[in-house]
Amino acid sequence: MSQGTAILFNPQVAMRPGDYRDLYEALPPVRRRLAQASEAIGVDLEEAFHSADADLVNQGPLIRPMSVALGVALHDSLPAEYRDGAEYMAGLSLGQITAAAAGGALSFDDAVRTVRTMATVEGEVFAGRDHGSTFCYCVDLESVFAKIEELAARGYDVAPCAITGDDQMVVSGRPPP
Question: Full-prediction pTM beyond 0.70?
């Protein structure tokens, strides 16, 4: 079995205002990719990135292209031996699209346009409808697990779908019949 390098890209996560500003300041590829993403979708993502308004920062049509830009910029910033020598690149959900863009299977511009379009369509078509998933941001994960156990004891078919950060989880399920 080989011991190659794998690069894993994060799924969509919520950002707190100020998150990743250290990377923005330290890594020119972050600034370059945010500008490129802004141009590709015709929206000033840097304004949203620097906003103190968490609701603005986390709007799907903004956070998703920013997430792709950040992920690809971090990939661009890796030393060549890791970036070019990786045997595997993968990600969960939005991370899969980011991996495709970083690996050249999908152009960066197409990736950010795709994720913006996905978020826009979801907002228009699925707004106000319960589709069995809940995105829990800025929560104590132990409390979420306790709530899942409580709901399961009451007959709900509910389980964690993905843990996407130290305070973020996607929970999927349905009510009892």
Answer: yes
